[in-house]
Structure formats: structure tokens, C-alpha cells
Design goal:
Strand content of chain A: under 5%
Shape of chain B: elongated
Strand content of chain B: under 5%
Helix content of chain A: over 70%
Structural class of chain A: mainly alpha
Number of strands of chain B: 0
Radius of gyration of chain A: 24 Å
Oligomer: heterodimer
Chain lengths: 298, 268
């Protein structure tokens, strides 16, 4: 319990640090949304000045940061400079779309990767000749290139653009490849353990051996992969959504960055830091449960 | 598999270095040769302005891979410094350095990259902005590598020969530089192959999203950007050829980066 409390306190400080650093960065940035708005010939200088005064009720860094924290705690997460509405309204709609893409792709990738690794790990030649190089290749291709190539393949074969299937596949396959590469090594290492070889010598069927002996032994390695793979999937989703036109968090974030709508950028960074920090904590707790020796050390 | 891949990688890097020798001017526009498929004159075809895609691929690669390599070197220097300091000194310094390294690992690096890009002046030349961005990204990404360096330094500082050197009155600085840090060199070499593709990917992604290098500068990202226009596919299929060459580059990096085949000494 002490460990959980310490990690929770550390996580809160970590998220606060990310929010403060983001606040400092954007406060010190030369220019903002209104700087670019001045170049729009449709808007007068007086209008821009009035909008800026309305949007920013404080100018110093401490008061600006406190104002943002208050808005965040109230549940508004700041006010968008471009849209003039609480950031939560904009981000909330997009988060649902992104979650609907990332979560199925991530779980599907894990399921596929684990299944292929479990079936293929005893077949070393198949892995060495075909599966390992294929997985490595898929894992190393940047998501920007992968998304573009998938888009071209879909049009080339006469598929429907805008379908949910293509961004899902583009996110799922690299996740599956990453999980496969780690899982096949973990399964192979676990299957060489003495207790597994003893169980195998007693004539246990392969599925029972895998489920009762090999998987639990390989679990710590795979559990520690959960956090980094989720971070990677969320990051990849930004590019995939932007390239394939999926109306998720990614395009909103890119648009906010291009127009320097800092409240949106700051809120998204803070929420991502919070979600991923909590995920890492939960993953570590699961890791300690699967291997009590690690929990004792912690 | 490893040696041919390393040779292929070395050859590609060599071609990138000497690109101005064997390619045409990437900015030269020939209206009469616009939107031409691959031919003996233009090996990857031309774009809508008649610019040679073969030249734009190699010149763009010089920028993209060069910027990535610079950021990689910066990251490794920072990680080496931070990890060896934390590992060798331990105590409070260890806690501070590792705490700082954790801070930026909680945000997906692509979101961090774009967030920082939003804060840079729009009036900057796009390449200046991308270089600054890669420098900043390297400055916040050292955490993972620093932890690996720290692990090696922690194990090396407890070796018998280190205790023996200390007993003979050798200074701590000399012990660190002469006896402990050389053990981290193999790790740093493999980390180049881990981080270089990431930084090249960063430049590529920024340019694709309109936040990095822009026209008329040649970069791999600017070669990728027109491909978002799917109407090009039936008429100009050759526009995907530079992308396939980029994929080959990353695949060669992937094969070269597989660490278990390298026969590098793990310790002195």
C-alpha cells in the first residue's frame, strides 16, 4: 500500500510538472493564435485586440498558470482560443473517436501477436525464415509511411476510403508485430526452463503446457511491455488519423498546433500524461502480482 | 544476414553523402518533362513541376538522415553524461537524474514533438524549425538510454579492478573515464541504430503533417506529402517509388539493429 501511495503521489507531481512545463513553454512562445489572426485581412486589429483581451484575463505566468489549473479543475480544461468554447467539449468528442480506434486496435494487436507467438514459438525455422523478418520489417516502418501506403493500396484495389477498417488495420498490425517479437522470445526462454521441460517430459499436451506453465513464466516480460506499447499506439494513432482522415484526437491536436491554440495543446498533453502514468502504475502492480519477487524488491 | 545488411546500410549512407555527384539538381524544373513515369533520364519519374524524383529522394535523404544523425549524437551525449553521473555518483544525483528522465517518458513522443513545434516561431525557416525541434526532442528523450548507461555503470563500478584502482589511489575521474565508461561504448553504438530511425521518422512525420520542411526544400517528408492526394494513384503511380526506397532504408536499419548477432564485447 505504501508503494501505491508513493507512486500515486509521484504520478500527481509528474502530471503537474508536465502541465507546468507546457504552460511555461506556451507562455514564453513568441506569438500565439492572435498573432497569426492579425495577418487575416478579414479581421481588424481592434477586433483581434478585443478578442485577445477577452480570452486572456491574466498576463503573468503564475496567474496564467493558476487560471488554467482552476479551469482544469472545474472541468473545462481551459478555453479554446479559436473556438471560444471549453476545451473539454472539443476534446471529449474527439477522444471518443480515437478511443474507438486505438483500444480495439491495441487489444486486437495483442491478441494476434500472442496467438501467433504461442503457435509459432516451437517452430524455430518458421520463425527465423518468415515470421521474425516480417514482424521486424512491419515494426520498423514508420507509421507515416505505413498509413500512406495502406491508403494507396486501398485506392489501387478499389476499396472505400473513409472506412473504419483501414486505420484499424494500420494500427493493429504493427502492435501485433511488436507483441509477437517480444512474446516469441519470452515463450522460448520460458519453455527452456527446467520446470517446463520436466512438465513436458511427463507427456503434457502442448496447449496445457503453454497455458499452465509457459505463459505464466513469460508473463512478467509481456506485462512490462503493456505501457510502452500503449504509448506507441496512441502516438501512432495521431499520424494514422491525420493521414487517413479519421476524426479523432490527432487531427484536432495537429490543427491546434498549426493555429497555436495553446489551451487545446496543453490540455491534451496533460491528459495523455495522466492516462499513461496511471496505466504504467497499474501495469507495475500487475507485474508485482505476477512475480512477487519484484514486488518485494519494490 | 547482419553483415550484408550493414554493408547495404553503409552503401546507402555513402550514396547519401555523395548525392550531389550522381544526381541532378533537385530543384530544377522542366515543364516539358512534368509528370513523366520512370525512364532512362529520370529513374523514378518526375513530379508536377518536372523535378527529378530520384534527385529529390537522395538530396532529401541527406537532409532527413543528416538531421536525424545530429539529433542522435546529441541524445547519446546527453544520455551518456546523465547515465554515467547518476550511476557513478548514486544517491541524490541518481534520484534527480532518473526522476527527470521519467518526466518526459509519460507523454507519447509524437504529441510532445508537435506540442513543442506549436511554440516555435512560425516566421522561422521550416528547416531551422525542424532542426531546433530535433535538438529539443533529443534533449528530452535521453531518459531511456540514460537508464541503460546507468545500469552498466552501476555494475562496472563494483568490479574488482575498480576497487583495486581505488585502493591504489587512482582518482575518481580517472576511474570513471578509464575503467568504467569504456564498457558503455557497445551500448552507445547499438543505440545509434535505435534512435536514428526515430529521428528520421520525426522529421518525416512533421513534414507530412505540414509542420516541418516544406516546398521547395527536398526532404523525405515533402516527398510523402503529395501522396495524401489519392487521385494521384491511377495517374502517377510512380510517386510511390521514393516511398518504397525509404521503406528499404528503414528495413536495412532494422536488420542491422538486431543486437544479438553482433559480436561486440560486453565488458573490458
Amino acid at each position: 500500500m505504501n508503494y501505491v501511495v508513493r507512486r500515486l503521489i509521484g504520478s500527481v507531481f509528474q502530471v503537474l510538472a508536465v502541465s507546468f512545463l507546457a504552460g511555461v513553454l506556451f507562455h514564453l512562445a513568441p506569438g500565439d493564435y492572435f498573432t497569426d489572426l492579425k495577418t487575416d485581412p478579414r479581421v481588424t486589429t481592434e477586433t483581434v485586440a478585443a478578442w485577445k483581451k477577452q480570452a486572456q484575463d491574466s498576463t503573468g505566468l503564475p496567474s496564467a498558470y493558476w487560471s488554467w489549473v482552476s479551469s482544469f479543475v472545474k472541468g473545462e480544461w481551459g478555453t479554446s482560443l479559436a473556438y471560444g468554447i471549453p476545451v473539454r467539449t472539443l476534446v471529449g468528442q474527439r477522444v471518443a473517436k480515437s478511443a474507438g480506434l486505438v483500444i480495439p486496435a491495441w487489444f486486437g494487436g495483442w491478441a494476434l501477436g500472442l496467438l501467433v507467438a504461442a503457435l509459432a514459438s516451437p517452430r524455430r525455422n518458421l520463425c527465423r525464415v518468415a515470421l521474425d523478418p516480417a514482424a521486424m520489417g512491419v515494426n520498423y516502418i514508420p507509421e507515416a509511411i505505413a498509413a500512406t501506403l495502406v491508403l494507396w493500396l486501398v485506392v489501387w484495389w478499389g476499396g472505400t476510403l473513409g472506412s473504419y477498417l483501414w486505420p484499424l488495420v494500420t494500427l493493429l498490425v504493427p502492435t501485433a508485430a511488436l507483441v509477437y517479437l517480444h512474446a516469441v522470445t519470452a515463450f522460448r526462454t520460458a519453455s527452456e526452463a527446467m520446470f517446463v521441460r520436466l512438465a513436458a517430459s511427463r507427456g503434457l499436451a502442448r496447449p496445457v503446457l503453454t497455458w499452465r506453465y509457459i505463459a505464466p513464466a513469460a508473463a512478467p516480460t509481456l506485462i512490462s511491455l503493456i505501457g510502452p506499447s500503449l504509448v506507441g499506439a496512441v502516438g501512432s494513432a495521431l499520424v494514422v488519423e491525420a493521414v487517413m482522415g479519421w476524426p479523432g484526437l490527432g487531427p484536432l491536436f495537429v490543427e491546434a498546433a498549426q493555429s497555436r491554440d495553446y489551451p487545446i495543446v496543453q490540455a491534451v498533453l496533460v491528459w495523455l500524461a495522466a492516462v499513461l502514468t496511471v496505466t504504467n502504475l497499474l501495469t507495475d502492480l500487475w507485474l508485482f502480482r505476477s512475480d512477487p519477487r519484484l514486488g518485494a524488491v519494490a | 544476414m547482419k553483415f550484408p545488411a550493414a554493408v547495404a546500410l553503409g552503401f546507402m549512407v555513402f550514396l547519401l553523402l555523395i548525392a550531389p555527384v550522381f544526381t541532378a539538381d533537385p530543384a530544377a524544373q522542366t515543364r516539358d518533362e512534368a509528370q513523366q513515369p520512370p525512364s532512362s533520364r529520370h529513374w523514378l519519374g518526375t513530379d508536377e513541376f518536372g523535378r527529378d524524383l530520384w534527385a529529390r529522394f537522395w538530396h532529401g535523404g541527406r537532409w532527413s538522415v543528416g538531421a536525424g544523425l545530429g539529433a542522435t549524437v546529441e541524445l547519446l551525449l546527453l544520455a551518456w553524461l546523465a547515465g554515467s553521473t547518476a550511476g557513478f555518483l548514486g544517491g541524490t544525483m541518481d534520484v534527480i537524474v532518473m526522476g527527470l528522465s521519467e518526466l518526459f517518458l509519460s507523454v507519447p513522443w509524437l504529441y510532445l514533438l508537435i506540442g513543442v513545434r506549436a511554440a516555435l516561431p512560425l516566421a522561422w525557416h521550416p528547416r531551422t524549425a525542424v532542426l531546433t525541434l530535433l535538438v529539443l526532442l533529443a534533449a528530452v528523450s535521453w531518459g531511456r538510454t540514460a537508464r541503460l548507461v546507468r545500469g552498466i555503470v552501476l555494475s562496472q563500478r563494483e568490479r574488482e579492478y575498480v576497487h583495486a584502482a581505488r585502493g591504489l589511489g587512482v582518482s575518481e575521474i580517472r576511474i570513471l573515464t578509464r575503467h568504467v565508461l569504456p564498457a558503455t561504448c557497445p551500448l552507445l553504438l547499438t543505440q545509434i541504430l535505435v534512435w536514428l530511425p526515430r529521428f528520421v521518422m520525426a522529421e518525416l512525420t512533421l513534414s507530412l503533417l505540414g509542420l516541418g520542411s516544406s516546398e521547395p526544400s527536398a526532404s523525405w517528408g515533402s516527398l510523402l506529402m503529395p501522396l495524401k492526394q489519392t487521385y494521384l494513384i491511377p495517374q502517377q503511380w510512380w510517386r510511390v517509388l521514393p516511398v518504397i526506397m525509404m521503406v528499404l532504408f528503414f528495413l536495412v536499419l532494422a536488420v542491422t539493429a538486431r543486437s544479438e548477432d553482433w559480436d561486440l564485447p560486453a565488458e573490458r
